[in-house]
Design brief:
Elements: H1 3-17, E1 25-36, E2 39-51, E3 56-60, H2 67-74, E4 82-87, E5 90-91, H3 97-106, E6 108-111, H4 115-118, H5 125-135, H6 140-153, H7 169-181, E7 187-191, H8 199-216, E8 219-224, E9 235-240, E10 243-252, E11 263-269, H9 281-286, E12 293-297, E13 302-306
Parallel strand pairs: 3-8, 3-9, 6-7, 7-8
Antiparallel strand pairs: 1-2, 1-4, 4-5, 9-10, 10-11, 12-13
Helix pairs in contact: 5-6, 5-7, 6-7, 7-8
Bound molecules: adenosine-5'-diphosphate.
Residues 34, 36, 41, 43, 61, 63-69 line the site of adenosine-5'-diphosphate.
Length: 312
């Protein structure tokens, strides 16, 4: 083999190793197995996910599909059983305890479903926002400026002196996002942040997350079981049985490009790196596709047909 062929091959394999090299968040074949007694649950079964810096995505899926497990891994609270997970420069598989604390303070902010988990009940909204800044060693002047900025951005500047119980559920969640933004993280992770809210209020909370994404450039990953959120983000990733199964992308209809103009939402199946694609159950049932199917390469697509051989 010539030197140039070898060089070419090694460049290709180096490229293959660096799956998602340009992405901010990389989940590569993530596996998380929970062991309780003799029972083993595979919460993540080889999940691949790439998120670019500045994106806002929704992760949807039925209860038990692995959404919270994914978020626990990304937040540095839980370690996967196998696979690779990187957020910016942080390799979450090999972080020391000290690095984990640093990662959770500086790189990511969290918003949880339970409003009570997000805010300290006996502190005002302003003090809640200042808390992470104090932990990070920010001075008084900086804390004040930052807390005003993020509360205003979230549209809850008027709540600065209120304690959580003096605010509505929607206001509390918007203050919670302000707390998550306090230390200027690159990523916000939100686990069902609108789960306890009515539709109108949950739109307000989504708007607040979008404002953070748009105005601060923070990357947002929102986990929800509500499939209607697809209408509010550009990319929705669906998880089924611990793997990403489909993605819905929204983009302006051609020729417009205006905000608020018609959008086209298209659903894509996700192909993993070994080339596996999940065929939706409706499609399988409609054509009685079972264990064996026939694949054919056409000029511009691949077709899948029932086996038709009559053999079991
Ligand atoms: P979702 O957030 O989509 O509802 P989860 O990530 O919470 O899904 O759970 C995925 C699967 O893992 C479920 O079958 C759940 O019962 C299981 N699971 C989650 N956490 C644990 C745990 N700490 N111990 C054992 N099983 C767990």
């Amino acid at each position: 083999m010539s030197d140039s062929t070898l060089e070419h091959l090694s460049a290709r394999s180096a490229h293959a190793v660096e799956f998602g090299r340009d992405a901010l968040i990389v989940c590569d074949n993530l596996v998380r197995i929970y062991q309780t007694g003799t029972l083993e649950v595979q919460a993540l079964q080889g999940l691949d996910l790439l998120v670019d810096a500045g994106e806002m995505i929704a992760v949807v899926g039925a209860s038990g599909s692995g959404k919270s497990t994914l978020l626990s891994v990304l937040s540095g609270l839980d370690a996967p059983t196998a696979g690779r997970v990187r957020v910016g420069p942080w390799d979450l598989m090999s972080m020391t305890g000290r690095e984990r604390v640093q990662y959770r303070r500086a790189m990511v902010g969290f918003v949880w479903q339970q409003t009570a988990r997000n805010l300290v009940p006996y502190l005002s909204a302003a003090r809640n926002v200042e808390l992470p800044l104090t932990l990070a060693g920010a001075g008084r002047r900086e804390r004040r400026a930052r807390r005003t900025d993020v509360l205003e951005l979230m549209g809850v500047g008027y709540c600065a002196d209120r304690r959580p119980r003096e605010m509505s559920g929607g206001e509390q969640q918007r203050v919670a996002i302000a707390v998550a933004l306090a230390n200027n993280p690159r990523v916000i992770l939100a686990d069902e942040p609108t789960g306890e809210l009515d539709t109108a209020t949950s739109h307000e909370v989504f708007d607040a997350l979008r404002a953070a994404n748009r105005d601060l450039g923070v990357t947002v990953v929102v986990v929800t079981h509500d499939p209607t959120v697809s209408g509010q983000v550009e990319r929705t990733v669906a998880i089924r049985d611990g793997r990403t199964s489909t993605e819905v992308l929204r983009r302006p209809a051609e020729g417009t490009g205006d905000e608020g103009a018609d959008v086209i939402a298209e659903e894509y199946a996700v192909m993993d790196r070994a080339g596996r694609v999940q065929v939706p159950r409706e499609f399988r049932e409609a054509l009685a596709l079972t264990r064996r199917v026939r694949l054919a390469l056409e000029a511009d697509h691949v077709s899948i047909r029932p086996d038709g051989s009559g053999r079991p």
